[in-house]
Amino acid sequence: MNHPREQGSVPPSPGCRPSRTNSAERPRIWSAALAAVVAIGSVLFGLAPPAVAAASTHTVFVAPDGREGASGTHQQPLASINEAVGLLARAGGPGVVEVLAGTYAERVVLRNRHDVVIRSYKGEHVILDGGSLRAPAGRSAMVTILDSSGVTIDGLDIRGYDTTSLTAMPIGIYVHGASSRISLRNNHVHSMGNYNGTLGSFELNAHGIAAYGDVAEHPIFDLQITHNEVDHLALGASESVVVNGNVDGWSITGNYIHDNNNIGIDAIGFEPTLTGPARYSRANRARNGEIADNVVENIISRGNPSYYEDGSWCNCADGIYVDGGTAIRIERNTLRNNDIGIEIAAENPRGSADHVVVADNFVTRSGYVGITTGGYCNGDEACGGVRTGRAFDNTFVNNTLYANNQLADGSPEFLVQYYTSRTTIENNIFYATGRAPALLGTVPGAQHDGTSTPPRTDGNLYYATGGRPAVATFGILGHTYTGWAAYRRATGLDQKSRFTNPRLQNPAHGDLHLRSDSPAVNAGLALPLRIVGFFDIDREVRVQGGRIDIGADEWR
Asked: Which residue intervals of 288-406 are DSSP H helices?
């Protein structure tokens, strides 16, 4: 991402975002509470429950010391997961592959398979190791699901699938074609990727978990990616977890994504996943999705060869990114120590990111900015000479942002860039800790891009270390105002907002919950439940007694 430096504007992170070609705390397993959330998400987004084994299903066992051609019983297991899948196909009807503990060196392929569960037997440690396998040119995966439905992959440790080739794209789990009712759960995808060291190369790619909707007539739908751990990946110009193209009706929930060198979660549109007339149609956009209850941390592009240009690294890996997606809800996520917390934008100049709701998230200690929306360049040479797409009808409510811009280059907690319109920013806490406390930010010339309009900002709570409202900065449409009073007087925005200490529990040590005496308690604007959501960051009831707190935490 290339942000221009100009007097009175937001300083940039060095470098630019390449176009794509083509340990800390583990999150809690929230059992009944999260099940309720997923159930509500299923209603909101039309998701079917994950594929489960019926009482009449066939069960086949696999073990490292199994035998080819065996019966597949627990006493006489097969040696190959692929052979087990084939045996189920010949038997007909739904089936379960129970994989016993051990290491398996095979790429598993489910092509035109239906109602199949592959899972670790009784939670045993099952390793799918690609270390001895060569990744061919193009996309290939340790688990590929193609033109299949009712498939569950549960409890596999997927690792070691590496390459140094610029033409190969290794993936942990890859879903594509006309697939539906897919559940990827409780897997650990890690320690793999593309280790080519060519500096500045945008041809260097890998994924942890990827769904590519690459059939125009048949979207991938009812896709659930839940309770996986995805970490220590070498991704080049690609993403840890991605839904790309014709993916309609999906959820990415309860995952722990960390210590990767590019984007944590991405929902993409307008790439050549679909070509021809469908390229710029709604079909080529990840849509009707939910990104919720994830922990995403240490997503940093420094050291990633794809992000090196003109002698410097780009600090531009998002924890969560919507690049051209639409109709997506991002809520109750915890993002910390990423280059950028959350970004809603469209890299393709003919594309847009729209109708996205970002609510009830904790975003802290990002290197560059906490949340940003809009295109990163307007065609000016200062930002890379490219023109990006639009962002409109996006809503940012009840988020808590603290101590972002750890690079200390003067960038803000929340940055509004080019080609943004009808943006709502309400009921958020913005707490800056830098020497030059920037709370809201803009980019040079935003007022002249022919599209941007002022955001609707109100009901927010702003603060900066030292409690100095006179030195805090606020940027709107290419103009930066110094001082809380001067900003509100000049723009007329944030008239119901306050500049005061939000009294968070222990923000310096990562606890962004409200104290009982916080001025944010019961002080939020009354917004529709469909916008603020049913639950706060802890999955507690969001609106109580008709009142709502400011920020992601509902104190009561």
From this structure: none
What is the DSSP track for 43-68?
HHHTPPPPP---TT-EEEEE-TT--T
Distance CA 141, CA 163 (A): 12
Average pLDDT over every residue of 349-375: 97
The pTM (predicted TM-score) of the whole model is: 0.91
Answer yes or no: is pLDDT of 425 > 90: yes
- Going by C-alpha positions, the residue among 307, 383, 275, 334 that lies closest to residue 539 is 334
Pairing of the two strands 149-154 and 180-185? parallel
Sequence-distant (≥ 6) Cβ neighbours of residue 61 within 8 angstroms: 72, 73, 74, 77, 78, 84, 97, 98, 99, 100, 121
With contact defined as beta carbons under 8 Å apart, do 529 and 381 qualify?
Answer: no
Strands 479-482 and 473-476: antiparallel
Q: pLDDT tens-digit profile of 521-551?
A: 999 999 999 999 999 999 999 999 899 999 9
Say if residue 43's pLDDT is above 60.
no
Q: With contact defined as beta carbons under 8 Å apart, do 93 and 58 qualify?
A: yes
Alpha-carbon Rg of the chain, whole angstroms?
23
Per the structure block, which two tokens stand in for 490? 């000049």
Residue 491 contacts residue 502 (beta carbons within 8 Å) = no
Q: Is a pLDDT exceeding 80 seen at residue 25? A: no
Share of the chain above pLDDT 90, in %: 86
Yes or no: say if 293 and 320 are a contact pair by the CB < 8 Å rule: no
Rounded (5°) CA angle 524-530-535: 65
d(CA 257, CA 230): 5
Per-residue CA distances from 233 to 141, 181, 385, 401, 490 (Å): 14, 27, 31, 27, 47
